[in-house]
Design goal:
Elements lengths: L1 E2 L9 H8 L1 H11 L5 H19 L4 H35 L2 H12 L3 H19 L4 H12 L4 H11 L7 H14 L3 H8 L3 H47 L4 H15 L9 H7 L14 H21 L2 H8 L3 E4 L5 E2 L10 E4 L5 H16 L3 H14 L1 H20 L1 H9 L6 H16 L2 H19 L3 H12 L7 H11 L5 H26 L10
Parallel strand pairs: 1-3
Antiparallel strand pairs: 2-4
Helix pairs in contact: 1-19, 2-3, 3-4, 3-18, 4-9, 4-16, 4-17, 4-18, 5-14, 6-7, 6-8, 6-9, 6-11, 6-12, 7-8, 7-23, 8-11, 8-23, 8-24, 9-10, 9-21, 10-11, 10-22, 11-12, 14-16, 18-21, 19-21, 20-21, 20-22, 20-24, 21-22, 22-24, 23-24
Length: 538
């Protein structure tokens, strides 16, 4: 048995924390400073984590490598299993041109560009985040806005800022699932607290979007539909994450926000020519004038309806228990680790949710989608393999980062850093969202940030007397605000709208909003850690 030690370097917690932080520092410097490709930075950081575990912490090489393999396995299944199948569904709709029909359908909902930004960037973007994540919402939303006549820069900025509130529950809840896995906290507990933080952002973001589209006039004329949309989104996200399923939180929120927006009379008022002239500086796509058969419109919406139905059915107690029966739990080979207190750690046991995981449910929805929209089985398989090929570097990045996180957690490196950070005491509540924000800003992924810092947040919380669930959730909730300034997302946005090389321009436009909303989240977490807002917690 390997027993974790908190102060392996010269008996000093400070020196040990400095050495333990080397893998993280290396990854962040390579990504943010050197601008190395994410998968290469992840692999380099993993190598550093292995060396620190073996040389500084004395963890046997066999156990170190075994822990890393377990992290990589979790990165493949269930995390990338979800992303691959969700993106596969989207690729099939593109191939059959049903996605074009969906885009035209959105464009006809309103001729007001401010309402179009809410429908496409905020609501539909949230649905895309729920199904795929990893930059897909920004790219697709920005392209759709440009097709409606938005200036490319404005379209990219709107898409980036909109991609905030849904991120913590994106890709079928992948970030919070990862957070629960690396921290050992129950998924329901973590999702519940996140669901009492990010909905507050949803109240603000739609108002920010109409300001970005049309300034003070936009806020004055469309604040009612923006507020109604945000409130509906927030209520649905809170309800789903607390009482239904974290995997369905964004899907329910996106549909609720869109439904509420369409129902508000103010949203259906035609835009004045002055608004359209000042906002829509680009050329409106002539495709929007095409009429699509009603049956084809229904089929375009069918894939997303199928996913909602399948995930809803999967939450029925009898069905949920039946699906969970296929889960396999076993002792992970060549791994026998105990914490500093001598108790075995949770990483010694590995759970494999073969059927009940979100990725398998999306796969079922994908098979039905292929039948509904008319994709031949051979073509569907070809698209699935093409999706895997498209995501090959993302898969390598996620697996390497999770392997790094597992090595750091199992060797005791995260525990050492956590004990050291805990010296911040009450100030830790303010710093927790900042740490998550920094992790996402550099890595471009709330999932990766949670994998890197989740266990550290929990350890620090335990040492400082704060709620582990609160600080773990704060890591994810603060992280969503780093998404809009991550080099990965800025590059995706620029590439989507033809602004290659202008990432700096976009960064200058979105950075103030990122920092401002981060400050709001920090104050929320501080309030929830004290008597001021502790009534908000479960």
């Amino acid at each position: 048995m390997y027993v974790q030690e908190l102060e392996p370097v010269a008996g000093s917690l400070g020196l040990s924390a400095l050495v333990a932080s080397l893998p993280l520092v290396i990854v962040l410097v390579l990504l943010g400073g050197v601008r190395m490709k994410a998968h290469l930075a992840g692999l380099t950081g993993l190598l550093a984590a292995v060396l620190v575990a073996c040389l500084a912490y004395g963890m046997p090489l066999g156990q170190t490598l075994s822990g890393g393999v377990q992290g990589a396995a979790f990165g493949v299944f269930p995390i990338m299993w979800i992303v691959v199948n969700a993106l596969w569904v989207y690729r099939m709709t593109v191939r059959t041109r049903h996605f074009d029909i969906l885009r035209r359908s959105f464009g006809r909902l309103s001729d007001d560009p401010r309402i179009q930004a809410l429908v496409i960037a905020f609501c539909f973007g949230a649905l895309l985040e729920a199904l795929a994540g990893f930059g897909a919402p920004v790219a697709i939303s920005a392209v759709m806005l440009v097709a409606l006549g938005f200036d490319p820069v404005r379209a990219a900025v709107v898409a980036l800022v909109a991609n905030t509130a849904p991120v913590a529950f994106g890709a079928m809840g992948t970030p919070v699932v990862t957070l629960a896995q690396v921290t050992g906290l129950p998924l329901d507990s973590v999702a519940s607290v996140v669901g009492r933080q990010t909905p507050l952002l949803a109240l603000v973001v739609p108002l920010v979007l109409v300001w970005l589209v049309d300034g003070r006039r936009g806020l004055r004329e469309t604040w009612i539909p923006a507020l109604v949309c945000g409130a509906a989104f927030a209520v649905a996200q809170f309800a789903a994450s607390n009482y239904i399923s974290a995997q369905l939180a964004d899907i329910g929120a996106a549909l609720a926000g869109a439904g509420a927006l369409v129902a508000v009379p103010h949203a259906r008022v035609p835009a004045t020519e002055a608004v359209r002239t000042s906002v829509l500086t680009g050329a409106r796509s002539e495709e929007l004038d095409e009429e699509d058969p009603r049956g084809e419109v229904v089929r375009a919406y069918a894939p997303y309806a199928l996913i909602v139905v399948i995930f809803s059915v999967a939450q029925i107690p009898a069905v949920k228990d039946w699906l969970a029966g296929a889960t396999r739990t076993f002792d992970w080979p060549f791994l026998d680790v105990a914490g500093p207190d001598g108790e075995p750690v949770g990483g010694n046991v590995f759970s494999w949710p073969i059927v009940s995981t979100g990725g398998t449910l999306v796969l079922f929805a994908g098979v039905l989608t292929a039948a509904v929209i008319g994709v031949h089985a051979r073509v569907a398989v070809k698209e699935w393999l093409a999706t895997v090929h498209e995501l090959r570097f993302a898969i390598l990045t996620v697996t390497s980062v999770l392997a790094l996180a597992y090595v750091m957690n199992l060797s005791g490196q995260a525990a050492t850093i956590g004990h050291f950070v805990a010296a911040a005491g009450a100030g830790l509540a303010f710093l927790s969202p900042v740490l998550g924000w920094f992790g996402v800003a550099v890595s471009g992924s709330d999932t990766s940030s949670n994998a890197l810092f989740g266990a550290l947040q929990v350890t620090a919380a335990q040492q400082s007397g704060l709620s582990p669930e609160l600080l773990a959730a704060a890591n994810s909730s603060g992280g969503v605000l780093g998404k809009m300034i991550s080099p990965q997302n800025l590059t995706i946005a620029c590439a989507a709208v033809g602004l290659a090389g202008r990432e700096g321009d976009l960064l200058r436009k979105v950075l103030p909003w990122s920092l401002g909303l981060l400050l709001v989240m920090c104050l929320i977490v501080v309030g929830q850690s004290t008597a001021v807002l502790d009534w908000m917690l479960p």
